[in-house]
């Protein structure tokens, strides 16, 4: 028997096959006051079973003033009107034009007092809503998060976690996302929940994910219902449908499958509107699994997607021995069986073909890999035996490893099971009944010095000494973790940042190993090098077999400073002299390093200040490098105390003009000066230098004023202007002074 609800609400209560009995037609009428033209009465329907069967009918355009409405219609009411309007209060908001209440319906028919879900979605002045009723009483209103998202245009109440209570899914297909109309679905774990989790498809422009939401039933027979959500405008209107799986924890927020015509076999790229029509929860071919119908309304096409049969397969892998001696015969057994999830006699599952591959350890004699295809009937356990001989060994006592991989060869079957099983058999070491050797290993790392000189020492040579006073240790490996500034000069395995070196195949007494590490860094900020050693053998070591080498990093270098002045002197002829408006003077300092360690060329310049009123006789302009680029320096009128303690020396020894006729300006003579501190580059090689060019300018008119207006300078016809460079290598300080030897006044 089929119960069919159609149109503006006529009901056939008796139908045989496809022959409708028109005499059994019952028309259920509305109250005269509720009859409205173009109300969309019947736009959505929800059939409810029970002692008094009824249909919930949506009428989303019931009233221009008050918006949509929802009616409860008693199917077998023969006296008077059969439909009654729900009087739903929306709190203080009241009703408003165009709220489209009733545009989506769903409800739970299993409870004695079923909740009904009424969606209202449309172009409103407020956010869209879902109205939840219990026993015809308003229970809760859920609101959308985004204006115009069409929250509530699609709703589904379905138990996806098998807790006997429906969960709620609310579509909001016009949610903007990162572009526009990407869409989303709000998932409430129980219809009474107020908090939700958002479900998404592919974040594609205009997809409108959440346009339709349907229940698929339990498509994989794992005791949890699954759902399908459509995005009929995805991929420029082609459309897609997403499958979400239920579980004990609710719906899995990551979709398990995406169905798109663009991935179908054949030419379906021109389809449009795929997913606008959805129907599921029905097994159309009788194989025990629900199938899915999807309509592509803009192309006039409908697709039936049949669910593949699901099998659970079980594989076992074992051997007849628990350990291997120096030479052993081993019998390995593997078994495969499967069970179909669906219990159906209408379309029973045929035999299934499996491909199995057995891979054996390289220490077997003869063939190491076996592969075969096996045809298995349902619940029939198929087993195979493989006999192998293990080669004798005196070096490699790692466990004997073997594995079994299993694969179903038929694409029409979906299989779940363990595809790969790995097993191992330990070697018999003569270490007690448990075959676990308890070693007592102590190691010591020795180096002649606890420091290195960066740039001078090219490698680090250490001796690793190990002593075992317990049971023998087999396949002993030395694990080394070192600083990134060093590299082990030995063929070892590298795993992440750890070197693994074979130390001994068998360690039952003492053994030493020499290791050499190349120093590959010249980082001037390097303070120490740390190398950690750990010796690991098969079995259990009763003592921690580890040691750490800490090396201090020292620096030894020889820094020098050279300088010159350009020009180194010039003559000034006084008033009326034909000279330029300004005279440029450049003091050039060159810093080098003879090594062996790298050196940073941070340098301080001490520059005398000669004031004439508010102007400087020699105006400092800038500091540039050898390429002419300006060097960033910090100027301070207070010289550092570390520089002021430099021993004073007599600069007159470098002045070749008569001292009684020379004005000397030198910062080491406690004159008014300022300091210029510049951070330089690092010199790694002796061939590298750093250059600093200090540029000054002299105004001739100020020179004339200097010599003629200051009483103390009347008998001094020469001016010695000296700048000083100070640089430290951490232990010593180098000082260089550059002067303009004389300015001769005629």
From TrEMBL:
It is found in: Membrane. GO terms for molecular function: integrin binding. Keywords: Cell adhesion, Glycoprotein, Integrin, Membrane, Receptor, Repeat, Signal, Transmembrane, Transmembrane helix. GO terms for cellular component: external side of plasma membrane; integrin complex. Residues 1-17 form the signal peptide. GO terms for biological process: cell adhesion mediated by integrin; cell-matrix adhesion; heterophilic cell-cell adhesion via plasma membrane cell adhesion molecules; integrin-mediated signaling pathway. Residues 431-503 form the Integrin alpha second immunoglobulin-like domain. The keyword Transcription regulation does not apply. InterPro entries: FG-GAP (IPR013517), Int_alpha_beta-p (IPR013519), Integrin_alpha (IPR000413), Integrin_alpha_Ig-like_2 (IPR048285), Integrin_alpha_N (IPR028994), Integrin_dom_sf (IPR032695). The keyword Ligase does not apply. It is a single-pass type I membrane protein. It holds the Pfam family FG-GAP. FG-GAP repeats lie at residues 136-197, 198-253, 260-322. Its main location: membrane. Belongs to the integrin alpha chain family. This is Integrin alpha second immunoglobulin-like domain-containing protein. The lineage of its organism: Eukaryota, Metazoa, Ecdysozoa, Arthropoda, Hexapoda.
